[in-house]
Structure prediction request, 825 residues.
Amino acid sequence: MLPSTFEDYLEAILTITENGGRAATLDEIAAALDTGKEAAGTTVAALVEGGYLERADGGAVRLTGQGLSVASQVARKHRVLQCFLTEMLGVDEDAASKEACTLEHGISDETIDRLSSYMDGAQSPPGRMGRCRGRDCTLLDCKEGDTVRVAMMHGQRRHRRLLDLGIFPGEIVQIRRKLPNESVVVRVKGCDIAISPEIARAIVVESCP
Amino acid sequence: MKFALIGNPSVGKSLIFNQLTGLGVEVSNYPGTTVELQRGNTCFQREIVELVDLPGVYSLDGNSDEEGLVRRFLEQQDVDAVIVVANATRLERNLYLLLQVAEYGLPMVVVLNMADEAAKRGLEIDPGPIHDLLGVEVILTAASQGKNIDRIIPAALAASRPSAVEIPYDHHIEAAIRSLGKMFGADRKESVRALLGFGDNPELLEAARTISDEIEARHRMTVTQIIAANRHNFAHKIADLTLREEVQLPQTDPDSILTRIIPGMPILLGILIGMLLFVFVVGSFLEEMIVEFFDVYAMQPFVALGLPPLAEELGVSILIALQAGLGIAFPYVFLFYIIISILEDSGYMTRAAFLADNAMHRVGMHGGAVIPFTLAFGCNVPAIMSIRLLRSRRERIIASFLVTMVPCSARTVIIAGIVASFVGIAAAFSVYAIVFLLILITGLVLSRVTPGERFGMIMEMVPLRWPDPKLVMKKSWARLSEFLFIAMPLLLAGSIVLGLLDFFGVMTIFEEFVEPYTMALLGLPGYAATALIFGILRKEMAFETLAILADTADLGAVLTSLQLYIFAVVTVLFVPCLATITVLLREVGSRITLAITVYTVTLGLLIGGLIHYLFS
Prediction:
């Protein structure tokens, strides 16, 4: 197994070169890893020697076949770990990304495979609707005629009137009309309320039991 | 005795107020706001009872102008009792406001209006639970038929005790109320209001904020949300006890036609265009009649008197001002207000706003702005007056800019009278094209630079119903007299000043002075500038004055096509007329009015100059 620094380099180069499509300059690599150009040069030279990178024109480097496979492997581990941390454990996205950066080097390929298949097979958390994978469902994801429960409201200080009209977490609403331009009318407490798309987007909903 | 009517929007509150009070209703604006407040008197057993019709609100805790006004009004405790009007067909939502009012601890009476409609829908109403839980008198009414309205005042006179209701809150909130009570001796109502961030005791507010932060961290909801949810749930419980649904009768739902893109959009366009055409045709007919009438029965006899020149000039100026004022007021403002009141009272306005919402977003406003824009094609004055329908100051500022640029019927007269008849139809349409392009650009720019929060639309689709003709006329008349009251003095003053300037030859000096500039900038003779200035009084006057000053109605003979075209473009863009300026002053204040005036003048001269520069 390669030292974690090397893996970080390969992963960064993969991102810079957009999956190995082009070459990356030393400046770009140093900037992406937030390190000095000299230190980057040393590590890159070691990677070239190991056969993971090859020199391209103008001092740039490019991933070799071997380098590409290692880099993709690490990048996948990062994605799976970050997804697990944010989606299943509810860790904040930035924090999850940082933690994934550390964990990705120590975790075995098999564990990652199992984690990935566990997440695929896992039931969605109760109430989440199938229509919007990987993010919260909002009023805008509903169809005309759907009946849903309000789960959460963003920016509710600005949308005080929603509360006064009876749209609050826990309340059940029915989508009466949805125009192609995404303005919606919902029925709540026997009254029809028209809502602009940008406000409807702030209302997170879940399916009714 | 003084009672206040309070309730959600469109629950028939105005209708009840109207039936209770006779003539002599005073519409006033609450100090510092554009919110209308109606006051009226009624007699009961030889005692005068004063009634205040508060604006319709959904809640007492919101941040709109109306909600702030009602809140302040109730805090002053300046009334003997409040009459809460609720819509029986939407009882649960209406009870939410009712519970908030009850918490204020004023003596109150509950009016469950639209009982007839509720019965038609198969709802059976039992007023008992509300009476028992709140400890107040409950009256079932049907205002559209005048049923039981006479019972309201006696009940209000008899009401002496405040409601004893205690809304059961979440246990965290209840604990917070208890500890705030122990720490500051605040009662239940004060504590709840402090938790919501209202009140005037800074220490109490500070403590309440600390507690609510703590509650917020534990729940996944804010204190405001929890309190609102508790009130709604309690309202739900009361509504369940009060209403029994016998059979769900089949209901026809007009919204299945009105709020779909097809056929909703064509219907909306049809209504807007129809409204415009109607006012245009009938309005210009009436205006012509009024102007003609003035000419024949006032102007000509007055000139025939042969008074000394100065007196004659003054008299003519006054007559011109009256003519201009009445010529706009009756045909356009009044007709528009009638139509707007019909659209408002019937509930169609909310459907129109819903359909137009997205298009209006592009220029920084929401759906409600479709009304001022349509109105503006007829006359800018009612259009500006209707921008108070918009919720935020930001939207009102943007709308006031754009509305003043829309070519009203008077400017259409200029485009038709000068460009279409002397230059050509295609040229006339190109003037419209230029103006619309400028409006679009101005809107796009303003929506980016205007400060203030963007509000989206959160709007109740009020139930559709037939408007009450008496109420419509009364509302329109009230707004018309308001317009005459503001606009007339300014029109008179402006007209007299211009007349005197003309009389003492200042105008001639002015013409000689500006001629080099107008020639260089616009390629227009000096008298065209005088005509432009007279256009401020009434836009058509620019056309008439030009004909008088040029000494011929055949303008094509004295001015080139390009000159006429430039004159028309500048007049159309140039300063809004005096009547528009007066309502602008009222609705958006002097700074914005000045900005609009400067902007339109600059724009007019700039575009006129550009055309002159490009084509000559």
Q: What stands out?
A: The radius of gyration of chain A is 24 Å. Residues 123-127 of chain A have pLDDT under 50 and may be disordered. The CA atoms of residues 132 and 145 of chain A lie 18 Å apart. The beta strands of chain A are 53-55, 61-63, 147-153, 172-178, 184-188, 191-195, 203-207.
